[in-house]
Amino acid sequence: MSAEELRKKFLEFFKSKGHAVVPSSSLLPDDPSVLLTTAGMQQFKKYYTGEADAMRDFGSKNTASVQKSFRTSDIDEVGDDSHLTFFEMLGNFSFSGYFKKESIQYADEFITKELGVPISFVTIFGGTAEVPKDEESREIWKSLGISDIREMGMEDNFWGPTGNEGPCGPTTEIYCENKAGGRAEIWNVVFNEYYKKDGRLQKLKNSGVDTGMGLERLAMIVQNKKNIFETDLFSSLMEILPAEMDIKTKRIAADHSRAISFLVSDGVAPSNKEAGYVLRRLMRRLISYGTGKESQLFKEIVANYGGFYPELNLEKILPVFNQENEKFSRTLSSGIKELSKFQSIDAKAAFKLYESYGLPFEVIKEYEDGERAKNLTREAFEDEFRKHQEISRAGQEKKFGGHGLLLDTGELKAKDAEELKKVTRLHTATHLLQAALRKVLGDEVSQKGSDITSERTRFDFSFPRKLTPEEIKKVEELVNSVISEGFNVQVEEMDLEEAKKSGALYFFKEKYPSRVKVYSVGSFSKELCGGPHVPNTSEVGKFAIIKEEGIASGVRRIRAEVMP
Fold it and tell me: Quick one: pLDDT at residue 403?
C-alpha cells in the first residue's frame, strides 16, 4: 500500500466514523508559543480549551487530518533509520465527542482490520502521585485481545503541551513490526484531561482525544521495509542522489530537500532568525554536500506530494533555493579554507566561522568526519548564538532610547514612532482588504491569520483556489477607492455578544474580552478589533498587493503594502 493510499484510507476510515476531515494547516502556526507546526493538534488547540466551538466550525465534535509537521529538535539526529525534520502526522481528534474506549477501538480496528497489521504491544501510563495509573486503557486493550501491555512513566507516556502551556494528558502508544525487521511506535493516543500552565496541572472542563501517527513509520511497517528511507516516500529521492554518496548523507539530503520544499511553499524565507534561520541551516547544509541534484530533488518532491498538497510550488522553491545557493557558494570555499586551519574547533570558533562565512553548525561538525569538532556540541554553539543576539538586542535598545519594540501585539510590530505610523496605516488597510475580498469573492472568505510589520501586511484567508489577476486587481481597486473616498473610521465599544450580533467580522481563533471595540468604515467594513487605526481612510495611502499565494489546502495568503 503506497503512502498516498495510506493517507486516503486513514481519512476515509475516520470520515466513516463521523469525523470531519480538516485540511492540514501551514507549517507557520497561529500559535505564538511554537516556531513551527510540530503536531496535528496545534490547529485544534483552542477547541480543547473551549475558546473555539468545533460544532460551529466543523459540524462535528470529532475531526481527522493529515498534518504537515516539523521538529527542529531532531535535526542533529537525521541520517539514522528513523529521525526526520519534516514529517506527516495522521491524526484523529475529539473535543468531548468520545474518549478512551472509542479512540482505542478505532486505532485497533484501523491497524488490524483495515491494514491487516498485527499489534506487537502497547504501553499505558504507569501513574504518579499527581496523575493516577491508566487502568481504564489497560482494560480496554485487554478486551480487544492485547495481552502485552507495558506501563511507562511520565517521560514516555504523558504528553506535554506544545509550547509552554496547553492541553496534555496520559497516553497509550501502539507498537508494530513487520517481516523485514522494521519495528516502530506508530501511533500515540493522547487523552487530554489536563491543562498545564506555569508547571501546574489542572483538570480540563472538557476532556478530549488527540492522536498522532507518523505516516513515514506507518508506511515502513505496511510496506515491509527495514527503515523509513526505503519506503516510497523516499526511495525515488534516494535514487536521484549520487551512487557514491554515503547512506547517511543521502538520507540527510533527502530529508532536507523535503523540508526545504514545504517550508518555502508555506512562505518561509531564509534569514538569520526564527523559522528563516532553520530554513537557512537546512539549505546551507544541503548546498555544502555539493550533490548538484537539488533541482531534480525538488521536482520529484513536487511531483510526489503536489496531488495532496497543492500549495507545493516549484516556481517558488527553485528561485528561493537558487538565490541562497548563489549567495552561500561564494563564501563556502573561503569558509572551508578557514575551517581547515583549525586543529580543534570549540563553540566560539564555530560561531565565528558561522558569523564570518555562514558555515552552519552541521557543516562545521561534520568536516573531515567530525574529528576537529569532536568536542563541539549543539548546546554550546547555540549559547554563543544567543550571546550574540543579546549583544545585538542591547545595541538596538540603546539606539532607540532604551526601548525595544514600541508595539508588539503578536499581529502588529513597530520599534519606534515612525514605524507605528506605518503599521497603523497598514492595519486599517488590512481591514479594508478583508472586506474587499468578501465583496469580490463572497462570504466564504474568512480570516485565518495576519501579521503586520512596518514594511507590509500579511493576511491569510479561507478560499479554495488561486485568485485570478482580474480578481486581484478588482480587490486592489476596491480598497483604493475606499481610501480615496476619505471615510472616517468610527469606533464603538460594546458587549462581545452584542458585537457579534451586529454583523461585525471577527477572527474565530481569537479570544476576545467581554467588552470589545468595533471599528467601522462607512458601510464597507465592520470588525471587532483592538486597534490602532487611522482616523480617516485618506491617511492610509496607496494600497498595493505584492503577492497572492496558497499556504495550505483551502488557505490563501496576500502580502500587501501601502505607499504615501
Answer: 33
